[in-house]
Structure formats: structure tokens, C-alpha cells
């Protein structure tokens, strides 16, 4: 399984004040808070860790179909500039993160060797609806190219837990993917 | 505080974070913060912190875990206020 999460850093700076009293304490474990506060670029570490937690949570929801809000329970371990590990109880999720001055994203997987195709793209719209449409469009066109199917036969539907699935002519496609968008950036990851 | 008063206070709290105006205008107990109001999950922390400040209560992690809807938030606030 696969989960991803992207953060538009410019928008994150506007939307959230990570230095707000209580903010770090609600989201991060004591050791994650140390990591953030001892870094020269705390802002970047906050969002790297957040995207790791969120991408792992997105797999967890696929596995258990139950939504909840417990960011602290997804404990992050940074192994390198890109590699990370997220532990939830005894479950481990492996993450790969990409950091640029504009955005940060993480992709979580359940197994070590798991190929995925990820595309990160710019969305030139400030409307959240357009941003979502652009992300859905990217997913559908990628799948229609790959499966040599018609774009218009594909539809995206979410289940009660908010997990999206792709349908072709009302038949569900057995395909593991994850989509995310935030501000001017979209992210589509498909497990190969 | 009545349930209506609680909903009104909660509406004021969530307003800065909502991304779906229509769902906000039609807010009921059943409204989901993320699915309906499209509050981004990082801002859900701000909602929790604002609720703590406004009602002078502490929302522990177990309560926060469930705080995904107006109904859940009202239950949690009522509970914490009763414990005071």
C-alpha cells in the first residue's frame, strides 16, 4: 500500500503558525520536538515530519477504514535527507521525502522494496476546487495512458473513510495509489 | 451552556480555517471538519487549541483523536466542562 502527502511551504507559512503555544506539543513526540527545535531550519523539519505522519496515516486508513486524529501516535524517525521510518504501535511505515524551497512531500509504503511512480506537479490556481480537479485529472490521465483505457471511462470515488478508489465503467480497479494536493502543488503516487 | 450556544461558539472558532463556505453556512451537528468544511488537518490542531483557550479546558490526546466532527467536539467540550 501507498500513502502520500504534499505541503506547499508558502501556504503552510500562511495557514499555520508552528510556533503557536501548544502546537508542537499536540502533534509531535518529545524527541520529534527536540529534532525540530535543535534544527537550523525548524520550519522545514516541522513540515517534513508532518508529511511523514500524514502519508503513513493515509496507509493506516486504507488498512483499517477508520479515521482519527492522533498525529503523535505516528512516531517519526529521520534516517537521511530522504529516508524515514514512521511507527504506529507495532506497524512500521517506510517513507521517502523530497524537500525543495517550494514544497515538501513524503511517500509512505508498507514494504521495503516497492516501486512506485510519483508525479509532483504545479497547479496554477488558487481555487481549492480547481486544485482538486487538477490532481484527479493527473491521476486519471496517468492511469488511462498506462492501461490504454479511455480517460472518460475512469471515475474516482471515495469511501466512507475518505479513501479514494478508481472505477472503470463502475468496476473498481485493484490499484494502490495515493493523491494529495496543497496550494499550488499536486502529488500522485501509484504503486507499480 | 446550551447545545445551540456551543455550536455558535464552535462556528466562530472554525471559521478562519474552513475552505467550504457552503458547508459552513449549513453547519449542523453532523458536519465533519475535514470532509465537509475541508479544514486542513494541520489546522485541526488550531481548532483544538482555540477550543482549549475559549472554554478554558484541556483536550487530552484521547479526546483529540475523536475530534473530527461538530458532534464529537460538542461531546468533548460538554464532558470537559462538566468535569470542572
Structural category of chain B is mainly alpha
How many helices of chain B? The count is 5
Net shape of chain B: globular
| Sequence stretches where pLDDT stays below 50 over 5 or more residues of chain B | none
Major β-sheet profile of chain B = none
Basic shape of chain A: globular
- Overall pLDDT metric of chain B: 96
User: How many angstroms does the end-to-end distance of chain A come to?
Assistant: 10 Å
Strands side by side in the biggest sheet of chain A: 1-5-4-3-2
Question: Major beta sheet of chain A, specifics?
Answer: 5 strands, antiparallel
What oligomeric state is this?
heterodimer
Structure description:
The complex is a heterodimer of chains A (192) and B (84). Chain A has 192 residues and is α+β, with helices and mostly antiparallel strands. Helix content of chain A is 32%, strand content 34%. Chain A is built from five helices and eleven strands. In chain A, α3 packs antiparallel against α4. The radius of gyration of chain A is 17 Å and the shape is globular. Chain A starts with a strand and ends with a strand. With 84 residues, chain B is mainly alpha-helical. In chain B, α1 crosses α5. The longest helix of chain B is centred in the middle third of the chain and has 15 residues. The mean pLDDT of chain B is 96.
Compose a concise summary of this entry.
The complex is a heterodimer of chains A (192) and B (84). Chain A is an alpha+beta fold.
Descriptors:
heterodimer; A: 192 residues; alpha+beta; 5-stranded antiparallel sheet; 3-stranded antiparallel sheet; 5 helices; 11 strands; B: 84 residues; mainly alpha; 62% helix
List the helices and strands and how they pair.
The complex is a heterodimer of chains A (192) and B (84).
Chain A: E1 2-8, H1 9-15, H2 23-27, H3 30-37, H4 42-64, E2 75-78, E3 83-88, E4 91-99, E5 103-109, E6 116-122, H5 128-146, E7 154-158, E8 164-168, E9 171-172, E10 177-182, E11 185-191
Antiparallel strand pairs in A: 1-5, 2-3, 3-4, 4-5, 6-11, 7-8, 8-9, 10-11
Helix pairs in contact in A: 3-4
Chain B: H1 3-14, H2 21-25, H3 41-55, H4 61-66, H5 70-83
Helix pairs in contact in B: 1-5
Amino acid at each position: 500500500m501507498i500513502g502520500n502527502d504534499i505541503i506547499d511551504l508558502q501556504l503552510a507559512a500562511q495557514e499555520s503558525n508552528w510556533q503557536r503555544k501548544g502546537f508542537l506539543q499536540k502533534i509531535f513526540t518529545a524527541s520529534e520536538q527536540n529534532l525540530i527545535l535543535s534544527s537550523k531550519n525548524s520550519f522545514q523539519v516541522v513540515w517534513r515530519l508532518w508529511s511523514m505522519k500524514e502519508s503513513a496515516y493515509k496507509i493506516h486508513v486504507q488498512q483499517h477504514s477508520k479515521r482519527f486524529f492522533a498525529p503523535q501516535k505516528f512516531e517519526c524517525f529521520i534516517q537521511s535527507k530522504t529516508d524515514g521510518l514512521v511507527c504506529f504501535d507495532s506497524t512500521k511505515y517506510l517513507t521517502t521525502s523530497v524537500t525543495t524551497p517550494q514544497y515538501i512531500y513524503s511517500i509512505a509504503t508498507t514494504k521495503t522494496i516497492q516501486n512506485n511512480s510519483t508525479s509532483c506537479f504545479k497547479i496554477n490556481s488558487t481555487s481549492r476546487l480547481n486544485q482538486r480537479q487538477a490532481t484527479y485529472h493527473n491521476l486519471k490521465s496517468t492511469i488511462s495512458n498506462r492501461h490504454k483505457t479511455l480517460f472518460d471511462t475512469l471515475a474516482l470515488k471515495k469511501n466512507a473513510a475518505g479513501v479514494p478508489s478508481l472505477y472503470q465503467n463502475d468496476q473498481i480497479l485493484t490499484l494502490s495509489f495515493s493523491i494529495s494536493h496543497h496550494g499550488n502543488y499536486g502529488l500522485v503516487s501509484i504503486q507499480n | 451552556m446550551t447545545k445551540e450556544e456551543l455550536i455558535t461558539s464552535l462556528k466562530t472558532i472554525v471559521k478562519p480555517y474552513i475552505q467550504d463556505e457552503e458547508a459552513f453556512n449549513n453547519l449542523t451537528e453532523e458536519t465533519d471538519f475535514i470532509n465537509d468544511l475541508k479544514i486542513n488537518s494541520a489546522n485541526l490542531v488550531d481548532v483544538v487549541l482555540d477550543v482549549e483557550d475559549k472554554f478554558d479546558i484541556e483536550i487530552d490526546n484521547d479526546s483529540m483523536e475523536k475530534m473530527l466532527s461538530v458532534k464529537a467536539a460538542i461531546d468533548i467540550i460538554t464532558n470537559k466542562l462538566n468535569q470542572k
